Input
Amino acid sequence: MKQFIQTMFVLTLIAGFVFSGPRKLLKSEIQMTKMERSEPDYRRGQNDDRAVCPHIYPNNPNSELTLIDSSANGFGMWATVTRPMNVMSNGNMVVVYRQYAGENVTHGQLGAGYGVVTDEGAIQWDVQYNVNYNGNPPWGGGGVGGLDASQARYPSSLASEEYPYAIWNEYTGGPPTDPPWPAECSDYGGRAYFSYDEFGWGGESWLYPVDLDPLYACDKDLWQGSNAYGYDENTDQHHVSVVYDDWTRGGSYLFTSEAVEDGYIVLGTETLIINPQHQGTENYSSSAILSMNDNGQGILGVDGIFAGSEPDAGACAQVCGPPASNLTCHKVPMFKITDNFGQTWAGNHAAFDFFYIPDGVFENGPDSPCQNSINDTCDPDEEWTGDGTGIFD
Output
């Protein structure tokens, strides 16, 4: 039975990747977009168009909208791998975001809003300010806003029935810093933290920020975290996993909880879960994303290219050698799965322990009303028929 569930889990994921909706791709385009790192430098634009920003509500008359707070940098939706909002089965919600702190000051103050379901069934929202202790950040501060300003980036939320959490990384290498950021350290100083309300939902007592990496050192550069949570009711154990890209060392690093006691997460040391040596040209694979359920089943993956694929050789002269040429030269979903809350991960050993979507799946996908023929821009004599299959990038 367990093997059957695992098999169905993988097949469902593959179907979701492949048949998720039509998007036309030229053969020469599948898909070699280079990842842009628009962080970490943020400035507020000084122009008349942004002098006053009134609240704008959607026009959907069936919507029920609540203004929670104001954000200096959007509400955390820039990176697709983060999870700024979490909704519990009982209706409680938590959203973590970069909070508006005033004109021309840091965009790295973290706010947390949580909505708690009252006895009457309404949702009572409460806002917490300075969750990452702006003005007294653990690493000393710096960057936009001055030496006392913290610089939260890529916030996510996480929640159990008892506690709401915030997970983010600080941009600790941004000038000015005091003392100056050491030259021998990482490029940007990405440092991962978590906090939670020690008194539970609506407790209004967020823990002083805690290093998510128990062995953090300044040569690490952790950015764009993706987190997952699962509760094992058989053992009454909470399980937390977080994966971060490293913008200096390359690759993605996984942290898995060893225990969760009264809300406090005891995380183990890092595991290199995606080795940059197994990927193609740098920055052509997406950030790692992670998901898990309460049965311990989870998936961790990227939309990427295998080692040997070199898109920078030119749009019409891409180089693809082994091992990519023995697997796929295309940019495809590649992933690993777990059935024990991230303690171990499985994949295709012949593909660097990744499952991936092979070329044949795309070539033999079902026909679609959107079927269309397109000339290959790199080879005018070659034609590609789009059949409505899709791929996320």
